[in-house]
Every structure is written in C-alpha cells, then in structure tokens.
C-alpha cells in the first residue's frame, strides 16, 4: 500500500478504527469510534442539558419576583441580588475548568459537582416551602399593607446559602458538560468533524428547549426532580463516552511562560527558530510553523535557551504557543461583557416592566406571569438556531466556501448589531408605557396596572432570542475551538465567564446610574421602586449607546485577531473515489483563517 493510501485510510477509515484525537475510556484505554462517542454519546449529554436547564432557569427567571414579592426587597436590591448570583454562577466555571483539566478530568469533576448542585437545589426547595423561612405576606388585604416587615437574617441566610451552594455546583458542571459533548467527535475523522460543526448549534437548542419549559410550567419542587433526572440520564450514558486525559494545570503552565519571558526581556531571540527550546518528542513539540509564529512575540523569549533549565526560567515552544492562544482570546472575551449585561435585563428589569402592564389574555380573567414572557426569548432562539443550521449555514457555506457559512467572529458581530436594535426598541417601548401611565393618572401609583397589554414588550424579548442564536452559540464554539487541546475546559469557561462578568457589570451599572441620577438628576432618579415614576427609557438608551461603543471596539478586535484553527478544512475521503491529499491538523494549522 502506498504512503498516500495509508494516510487516506488512517484519516478516513471506517467506524471500527480507534480514535486519533487521544480520547480514552475512564480507565485510560484507547477507544473504538464505533463503540463510543459520536451522536450516540451526545444524546445523553443533550438530554441532560434539557432537564438541567429546566431546573436552573426555573429559578433564575422567577428570582427577581420572588425577592420582591416574598422577601420584600426593593427594585435595585432585588435586581442586583439576581445579577450578583447569576454572575457568580457564570464565574465559578473557571475553578471547575481548572480542576477538570489539571486534576480530576471532566467526567469526575462533573459528577462531583452535580451532587453539590443537587444539594443546593434541595436546600432551596426547603427555603421556599417552609413557612418559617419566609416573612409573612404583605400588601393590600394583609396585616402589612406597606410591606414594611422585611425578611430576617436567618431567612435571607438560608435562602442565599442554598443559591450559592448551587452556584458552586454549576461551577463544576457548566464548563465540562459542553466540553464532554464536543469531545465525542474526533477532529481527525472527516465525518465526525462535520458533525462537530453542528454540535454547538444543537447544544444551544437543547439549552433553550429546557428553558422554554422552565419559563412556563415548572415550580421549585419540579426543578429539583428535574435536576435529579438529568444527572441520572447523564450517568446512564457513561459506557458510551470518550474522555480526554488530564494535562496538568493550565494556569501553572501559563504562569511559568509569563515569568520566564519576564526574566528574559533583555535576551535576544535567535535568528534560527529551531534553537528555541522544545521537547524531543514530536508529539509534545511544535513543528516549524509553531517556531516561526513564536519568533515574533515577546512571550517567545520564554523558550530561549540560557544557562538555567528551571521550569520558571525555560518553557517549550508548545507551552509558549498555548499561552499565546489563551491570552489572545482575552480581547474577544472583553467584547462579550456588554452584550452579557444586556441579557441580564431579561431576568430583571424586563420582567419588572411586565408586572406593571395588563397581563390578561384575550380580555378574559387569565393572567400570564410576567416571567413567562422569557419563553418568547426561548421560542425565537429555538427557531433561529434551526433556521441557522438548516438554511442559513448551508447557503452561506456554498457562497463563502467556509463550512460554518460565516466566521465565528462575524456571527458574533451580527448579534452585537441586534443588541443595539433591542435597546433602542426597549427605550421607545418604555417611553410609550410611561406616556400611557401619565395619560391615565397612574404615574405616581406603585402597583397600579397600566391599561396597556404586556405583549407590547414582545419585540425586545423576541429579538433577544435571535441575538442569542448568533452570539451564544458562536461564543461557546469560538472559545472551545480556539483553545489549545489541553485547555479546552478553560477555553469553554471563557464563554461562561463573559456571562458572569456581564451580570456583575449590570449590577454595577444599575447601582451607579440609580445613585448618580438620584443625586444629580433631580427627582428620584432613573430607577426607583415605582417603575411608573422611573425613567427606564433613559437607562435603555444609555445601554444602546454603550452597545455602539462596544461594536466599534469589536471591529478593532476582529481586525487584529488571527485564527489558529487546528483543522482548516474537512477533506471527505470516504467513498468518493476521488482520492486527494489528506492533511493532518499540524500540517494545516494557521493555513486557513476562515474558521
């Protein structure tokens, strides 16, 4: 057999060959692709995500209303408590990614974190179910019409303890479950790589499918049961999963590169890149392409050979390149903070607006819960993902020659433009709501329903779902795809970190704007407990301007970013009869930047 034929057979062989991406079973043994992985394994992962998202969004979508109506908190404090908790939810994945990549592996980290998650959910169910853990009812027709009696320290302590135990659990599940799913597809196999291009679209579909039920039919006890079911489903798929071995601490490797480069700032890079330090094992080191790329960066000085061989003074070219790949994604990460802050409004101020409007359906007595409007975010996102994957992506792929249709950064850019439109529409809608309140003389009345249908808010919810279909899928796929092989969980945690920082940013902006406008703007400020006396239209207009500034920054980031896709294109060698050269990942690295 010729060398070319051997390469084709290795790259495009049948389903009974071993995986070529280093995946193993739980005991470290090589795995046959016909026995493990692929959509067969991903089925368990995707179904898990549906049930888990039911549990999580069943809490987050109603949390601001629970804090205000049951624990008697004000608009600013309740909104900030929600965004601070959600921010923590999305920041803890950094720790979970570190533990998975460096110590326990993704599967074991996920299983331990799932138990912590379940404990937090169970405690939360008790906190909302036991009467002594809530203050007495207040409002019209009760002994406390002004809601002056607040929740006690014990009641708040138990409630928030449960929430933050849950946050610790999600820190171990969120960065690993999507990565486990993506690991089921071998980039070295043409058909599996094609399937992987669609995986993140359907992954996000499963998330929002679960969210749809969370926003409409579930309560806390059902959330807890749903989480238990999701863990059982994931565990049932254990015999079918492929696993990536641990690769040591990503943070330690990057820290050693940075320290080594700092110690050798005055050192001159050699003219011959092959003089840089690299391991003898070709599987551990980089090829000539890696060396050439390394020569032109300050961090490459970490690989310059000197008299010392300390790990904190000398790094390999591969370690330098891994560090550069992680660090160069930081500007892209920064771009996602502002849209993440926009998304936080869906669970807070958008829902609060709904409480002031006429929630009757068809003029009858049935009223929809304000949080149920979030279901329209979900529905529009589900429809958008399907249309994107089945219609838009194939059409654009034929037009551009890019298997993804458009690049991941271009997909993010479309979402950023939509976010500007969302906040502009939200500002105009809020201005109309306030005008109706003034006409009917209820501008100064807290708790009085404005004679305006709640469905006037529908456009901002629907467009948010469309934006999510572009941004959230592209974001998680981008950070997974562009992260080094041994840092995939860390790369995936970037996507969660953006949501965490975005929620903290939302809290900061809300508190700052409320304080500044109350102190210097006259009246009670833009954000008050009485939304009819607030100026949320100004606040949303401020967000629209902020999005425009962020879009300009995004264009600059796109201009400077260089993709480092491991595999630049898919070569179908199965059954076509046309032959052709099959390129290995290292041979095509940095060749095609269209991915």
From TrEMBL:
It is a multi-pass membrane protein. InterPro entries: MFS_trans_sf, NRT1/PTR, POT_fam. CDD domains: MFS_NPF5. One of its GO terms (cellular component) is membrane. The lineage of its organism: Eukaryota, Viridiplantae, Streptophyta, Embryophyta, Tracheophyta. Pfam families: PTR2. The chain crosses the membrane at residues 112-133, 153-171, 199-218, 224-241, 330-351, 371-388, 408-429, 449-471, 492-516, 539-562. It comes from the Eukaryota. Keywords: Membrane, Transmembrane, Transmembrane helix. This is Major facilitator superfamily (MFS) profile domain-containing protein. GO terms for molecular function: dipeptide transmembrane transporter activity; tripeptide transmembrane transporter activity. It comes from Oryza nivara (Indian wild rice). Belongs to the major facilitator superfamily. Proton-dependent oligopeptide transporter (POT/PTR) (TC 2.A.17) family. Its main location: membrane. It is found in: Membrane.
């Amino acid at each position: 057999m010729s060398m070319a034929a051997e390469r084709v057979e290795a790259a495009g062989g049948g389903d009974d060959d071993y995986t070529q991406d280093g995946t193993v079973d739980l005991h470290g043994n090589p795995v046959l692709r016909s026995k493990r992985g692929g959509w067969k394994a991903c089925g368990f992962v995707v179904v898990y995500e549906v049930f888990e998202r039911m549990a999580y969004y069943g809490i987050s979508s109603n949390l601001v209303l629970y804090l205000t109506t049951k624990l008697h908190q004000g608009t600013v404090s309740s909104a900030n408590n929600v965004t601070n908790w959600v921010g923590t939810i999305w920041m803890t994945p950094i720790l979970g990614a570190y533990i998975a990549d460096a110590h326990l592996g993704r599967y074991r980290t996920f299983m331990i974190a799932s138990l912590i998650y379940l404990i937090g959910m169970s405690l939360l169910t008790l906190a909302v179910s036991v009467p002594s853990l809530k203050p007495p009812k207040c409002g019209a027709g009760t002994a406390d019409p002004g809601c002056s009696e607040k929740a006690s320290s014990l009641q708040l302590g138990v409630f928030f303890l449960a929430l933050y135990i849950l946050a610790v659990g999600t820190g171990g599940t969120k960065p690993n479950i999507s990565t486990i799913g993506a690991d089921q597809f071998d980039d070295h196999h043409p058909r599996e790589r094609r399937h992987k291009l669609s995986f993140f679209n359907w992954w996000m579909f499963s998330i929002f499918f679960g969210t749809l039920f969370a926003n409409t039919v579930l309560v806390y006890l059902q959330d807890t049961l749903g989480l238990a079911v999701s863990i059982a489903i994931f565990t049932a798929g254990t015999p079918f999963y492929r696993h990536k071995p641990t690769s040591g601490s990503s943070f330690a490797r990057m820290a050693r590169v940075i320290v080594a480069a700092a110690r050798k700032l005055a050192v001159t890079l050699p003219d011959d890149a092959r003089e840089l330090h690299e391991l003898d094992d070709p599987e551990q080191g980089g090829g000539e392409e890696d060396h050439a790329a390394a020569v032109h960066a300050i961090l490459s000085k970490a690989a310059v050979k000197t008299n010392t061989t300390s790990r904190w003074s000398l790094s390999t070219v591969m370690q330098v390149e891994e560090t550069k790949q992680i660090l160069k994604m930081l500007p892209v990460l920064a771009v996602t903070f502002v849209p993440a802050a926009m998304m936080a409004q869906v669970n807070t101020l958008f829902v609060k607006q709904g409480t002031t409007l006429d929630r009757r359906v068809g003029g009858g007595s049935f009223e929809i819960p304000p949080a149920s409007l979030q279901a329209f975010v979900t529905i529009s996102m589900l429809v958008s993902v399907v249309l994107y994957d089945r219609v838009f992506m194939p059409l654009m792929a034929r037009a551009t020659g890019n298997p993804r249709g458009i690049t991941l950064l271009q997909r993010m850019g479309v979402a950023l433009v939509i976010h500007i439109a969302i906040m502009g529409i939200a500002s105009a809608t809020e201005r109309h709501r306030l005008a109706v309140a003034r006409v009917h003389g209820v501008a100064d009345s807290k708790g009085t329903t404005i004679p305006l249908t709640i469905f006037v808010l529908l456009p901002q919810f629907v467009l948010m779902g469309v934006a999510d279909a572009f941004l959230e899928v592209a974001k998680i796929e981008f950070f997974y795809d562009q992260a080094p092989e041994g840092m995939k969980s860390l790369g995936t945690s970037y996507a969660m970190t953006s949501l965490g920082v975005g929620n903290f940013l939302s809290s900061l902006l809300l508190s700052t704007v409320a304080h500044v406008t109350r102190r210097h703007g006259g009246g009670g400020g833009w954000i008050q407990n009485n939304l009819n006396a607030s100026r949320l239209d100004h606040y949303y207009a401020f967000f629209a301007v902020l999005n425009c500034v962020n879009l300009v920054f995004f264009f600059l980031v796109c201009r400077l970013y260089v993709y480092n896709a491991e595999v630049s294109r898919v070569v179908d060698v199965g059954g076509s009869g046309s032959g052709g050269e099959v390129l290995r990942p290292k041979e095509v690295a940095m060749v095609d930047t269209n991915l």
